[in-house]
Every structure is written in structure tokens, then in C-alpha cells.
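User: Predict the full complex structure for these chains.
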Amino acid sequence: MEIILAFVIGGLYAAAVYMLLRRSLVKILIGLALLSHAANLLIFTVGRLTRGRPPIISPGAEDLAVPYADPLPQALILTSIVISFGVMAFALALAYRTYRTTQTDDLDAMRGSDSQA
Amino acid sequence: MSLVLVLPIIIPMLSGVLTLLAFRSRIAQRAVSMAGSVALALAAVLLLAEVAEAGIRVDRIGNWPAPYGITLVADLFSAVMIVLTALIGAAVAFYSLVSIDQRRETFGYHPLFQFLIMGVCGAFLTGDLFNLYVWFEVMLMSSFVLMALGAERRQMEGAIKYVTLNLLSSALFLAALGLLYGTAGTLNMADLARKFATLTTPESQGLVTTLGMLFLVAFGIKAGLFPMFFWLPASYHTPPAAVSAVFSGLLTKVGVYALIRVFTLIFIHDAALVQTVLLVIAGLTMVTGVLGAVAQYDFRRLLSFHIVSQIGYALMGLGIGSALALGGAVYFIFHVSVSKAALFLVSGLTQRLHGTYDLKQLGGLYRSQPVLALLFLVPALSLAGLPPLSGFFAKLSLVRAGLEAGQYLSVAVALGVSLLTLFSMIKIWVEAFWKPLPETGVTVAVPIREWLPPLVLLAAVAIGLGLGAGPAFALASRAGAQLLDPAAYIAAVLPEVR
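Assistant: Here is the predicted structure of the two-chain assembly.
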């Protein structure tokens, strides 16, 4: 399972970098979304994959039976999903406003802030 | 629970919430924002006094014991950075009252500003790396909106670059966090430091160093290091001057703070390699930043390139890594944030008076606004490092630490860049203040009296830090010595482990 996920993560990173290198603003945003998915899956995988062993102490037992699934990576991922959702919503709104203001979504055409005033 | 550690986060949060509740009333928002800034300044001084007296203070949120719950930790470095945040926050909040236009105010400038300050304070206080990521996002989210608020064409173009590259850096940070958790099984900084201290095999050592480099890239983008600073001069000159000032004073410094924190606490075992890498990056950052600055004719673009250049000095302190160098870096960060924020505020005033940031279209300000000229000269000369201003002592300590460590090349670069810094400050002086106003220049007759108090405050701090360099530097040295002693930090956060 780890092998499959490793390929999926690698593929997501490759796709994200490819999209980030495009000139179109929308594609860059898709790239950023893929990048955060890749990071989330990465946390999930390196936090060890354990199937069918919830981190719940069974009735009568004193301790968790090893091995059990580590709940912390999932909490981290949940937090980061919420954050990236908010950030992505803002980025989309920003991209739309930028398109309305500049009438282009080509980053090469957005040089107003780079050139001399 | 000690209240003094939580106050620097709670006060801006409350101010932000109250300004949101008073969204319809500009006057109420302004009053809350002022009260919040002053209260934060008091809380920050209180925190610094307590940490200076009682040593490292730790607070467990929700009383969860240290490696499991989130801890807030304030050592001297954190406390000094909190005081810096409160100082710059207050100066810019007061400046915003006169400089921010009504439209931006009605669309939530004040709440965003307070939440930005909250994010910065949280980042300085947290003792948990994932929590640091969350505070980074809080800070970034507010800064994104502040950057884009107003929706002028240049602002939107700058904001796109700023947002994309900062999100990229956040994603890298997140990936590094995941890998770090997979390696060490914890994200509490003190616990990480403790676990990595027992690493013995070269394989695991290599993995840890690789992780350190990943963090260097993630924080380096945020701090504006060479070669990852290009978003900074492309965006910092587009929002109103007050926003530029608070960004320049605080945001890149959070990146530098995070670098110093992880490379003095967690990734300290491959020091030779890491320090060489840091010194090379520091030198290149200083040189490219200042060369970019020298070529500029836009007041704020010139200053933006200078931010990059000055970050190099702070990194050089980290790269040398002795107590003197780290103390120098702490002192330098404080000094440069104050001076840079003051210069951005001056640029806002010149724009108000002559309607432009273009140095070629400015002129004659020495004659028409002598007080403003003086208030420009103090931070400008301080930045260039002329005694008796704060910049001189900051650079002196870094240069001395460099000589003691035998890093002659870095010292030579630092001194050469210093000269170019002076040159570019003189360029602003000649263009904006000394030469007569060009015939194409516009003059707007506006009273500027109420714009000056924040500038006077920051200039007074720059002078005070220079004249009172003895006690100020003693405090910075103590902060530096504390950074070099991770054992004390670990013992404070995890008392029951020892």
C-alpha cells in the first residue's frame, strides 16, 4: 500500500510542479491545489499506514494494543485541509478579481508591479 | 496557566473580534484598534520583563502535558520579538488612522491588521512546529487580504505573486512537517531537539540534515532569502505605505525567527555543513538585495530590495553561530525592523505630499519639510550603520563575531554591502530631499503634523537603541546565549523527562 501511495504522491507533486510552471493563472491555482493534496497524502503515508486497528482501548484492556493507527497525522491533515480550503477560496476570488482588473490571466502580461513606476 | 504568555495573542484577537463587531462604525473600529495596540505594547513589555527576570516561561494550553498538547514558550528571543511586534504594530496602527483611505477602512482594514498582529505574535510564541504552521497561515491570510485590499491594478498583480509563492512555501513547510513527524514521531520543538540529540548513525543524521534543508527552503521563501526573494520586491511596494511598513517590519522577520529557532534548537548536529550553507546564502542575499536596491528609482521598490539585503545580515549571525553572533542577529533584527518600518512610513508621507513614489519626480523636501528630512535621516543613517545609531552597533557585533570565527569573506561582504546601503540611502536623500523639485513634480499642500508622531516614535527607538546600546545589547547577548543552550529550553518545556 505504501508503494502505491508513494507513486500517487510523486505523481501529484510532478503534476503540481508542472502546473505551477504554466503561465495561466488558473493552471497555477490548480497546481497549488494539487500541491496541498500531495502534502496531505505525504503526511498520511509517513505517519505509518495501519489497517483496521483504531486507536481505541478495547473494553477490559488497560492500554492500546500495538499496532494501532496513529490518530495524529489525521488530525494534522484535517487542520491543513481546512486551511488550504480557506486559502484556495481566497486565491480563486483573488484570481477572478485580478482577471477583471487586468483583463488577462497570463502571468507574463502582469508586469505592472515589476516595472519602474 | 500564566496569563502573561497568552496576552500577546489574546489582545489582538479580541481587538480583531471587536472591530469586526463594530464593522459599520469607523470611529469605534479606530478606537478599538488604538486601545488594542496600546494594550499589546503593555503586555509585551510585561512579558519581556518577566522573561528577563524569571528565565524561559512555558504555558501548556489546556493543561495537556508538553509533548502531547500545544505549548507556548517564551525565551528572551521570543519576548524581544513580541516587543518588536507590539512597537511596530502600534506605530503603524496610529499611522493608519491618518493614512488609510476611507474605502479600505470600511472594508475591514482594522480587523485584518489586528489578526495579522495576532498571527505574528502566535508564531513568535509557539513551541510546536505544526502550531507554527497554523500561525503562519493566520498571518498569511490576513496579509493576503491586506495586500489586495483596494484592488488597484498594480496591487492585484503584486498580490498574485505574493500569494502564489507564499502558498508554495507553505506547502513545502507542510511536507517537511509530515516527513519530520514520520522520522521523529513528534512535532514539539523541545521534544524534537531531545530526540535528535541522541541520533548516532550517520544515516539518520543525513535524513535529519535533509529535513533541515527542506525547512531552510520553506522558511527561506518567507524570509526572502537568495534565490527565493523575487516575490518580495514584486509586491511590497504595491499596497498603501502603512501596509508596506508593517509587512517589511514583521513578516520577513517571522521567517528569520523560524530559521533561527529551528537551526539553534532542532537541526544543530551537522553544524559545519549547515553553517557554511547559511553563510553562503547570507552573503548572496546581502549582495543581490543591495545591488537591486541601488538600481531602483521607486522609493518603495528600493526599500523592498533593502529588506532582502538586510535579511542577509541576520542570517549571517545565524551562520556564524556564536553567542555574540546570535546576540548580534537579535539586536540587528530589532534595529532593522524599526528603521525599515520608519523609512516606509516616510515614503508614504512623501507620496502624500507629492503624489508619487518616483524618486525622479520628488525633490526639495529638505527645504519644504525639514522635520520630515530629519526623520528620514535618522533611520536611513541607522540602516547604513553610522554611529551612534542602532545600526552601527548591530553591524559592529556581527562583524566582530565574524572576525572571531575567522569568517573573513562574510565580514568583507557585510562591510561592502554596508557601503552600498549608505550609497542607496544617499541616493534617496539626494533625489527626494536635496535636489530642487523637478518642474514636472506636483505638490499637494496638506498638513502633515498628525502624520509625524509614529515616525518620531520609531526614530526615537532607533536613537535610543544606539545611545543605550550597552543595556540593549546586554539583553540581546543574553538572548543569544539562551539560543545556544537548547538544554535549558528542553528542560523548561519538558521538566518531567529529565
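The CA atoms of residues 24 and 106 of chain A lie 5 Å apart.
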